[in-house]
TrEMBL record:
Protein's organism: Hymenobacter lutimineralis
InterPro entries attached to this UniProt entry: Cbl-bd_cap, Cobalamin-bd_sf, DNA-bd_dom_put_sf, MerR-type_HTH_dom, MerR_fam, Meth_synthase_dom
Molecular function in Gene Ontology: cobalamin binding; DNA binding; DNA-binding transcription factor activity; metal ion binding
Lineage, highest ranks first: Bacteria, Pseudomonadati, Bacteroidota, Cytophagia, Cytophagales
PROSITE patterns referenced in this protein's UniProt entry, alphabetically: HTH_MERR_2
Ranges of residues in domain HTH merR-type: 3-72
Keywords: DNA-binding, Transcription, Transcription regulation
One Pfam family, short name: MerR_1
Protein name, per record: MerR family transcriptional regulator
SMART domains: HTH_MERR (SM00422)
Cell cycle keyword on record: no
CDD domains according to UniProt: HTH_MlrA-CarA
Amino acid sequence: MGRFSISDLEQLSGIKAHTIRMWEQRYGILQPVRTATNIRTYCDEDLRRLLNVATLCARGQRISRIAQLAPEELSRAVISCCDDAHDYFQQVNSLLAAMLAMDERRLCCLLDTAIQELGFEEAIMRVAYPFLQRIGVMWQAGSVNPAQEHLVTNLLRQKMMAGIDALPPVQPQEARRWVLFLPEGEMHELALLFMSYVLRARKQHVLYLGQNLPTTELGPVCETYQPHAVCTVMTAMPERDRVQAFVEQVHHLCPGVMVYLYGPLAQQEGLRLPANTVRVRLMTDFLALASSLCTCPEAASVA
């Protein structure tokens, strides 16, 4: 069970600490536990309730009325009001509350609605990515358990796979060819899957090799497939002191091929980039890159 300070709640919910204290004192919205030194601490249920209360307040409902709602009524009210496709912050709050409740049905419904109303790429960039960033903050604070993180990750992976499958096929001889892979031991796949979608939506051909690829396999792949570009994401692997050697090995195994590096480990200071190797700092940079390489006007308009 999570243990949050009031500053944690402020950061995760977007509600100022003094407002939280006022709601707590006047309306009994939250029920903190006091430490031996008289400091308030809050649990998962407190955070979930605050996220739901914040969502309804943002819709103009009175806090005095919200405070009277039973937990089931509060959840139903939040679900019924999350219909603004461009209210990204409140959509993220609703997703966080659903995750904390391990409510897969609601998570799926919220994501499907965002995709239907915004389009796949906008939903990922405007809703799913901020959602994952908030989960990252909670993970660092020790307030997200592995089951909650796995629920979200696997659900987003399903959505991305479905989005990719729904795209029309592209013939490799008629398109720019990409190899996408994760380094050996790397299992964080969501960014690479989204990159695959972005490229395919712009009529690029993608050979998707997925997680945990031994680097030596790139040589035979490049000889056979003859890609124009290789892309990898380095989140947790390789080890920080082996990143330079990994980048040089990829360059050696893929001569004459553009290599694109993304992820936290690709951004480390002092990394020397071989020829034809580019560091992509932001996902928006990758979207711009993919659109600039696209020769199909109708596909470029997807960006």
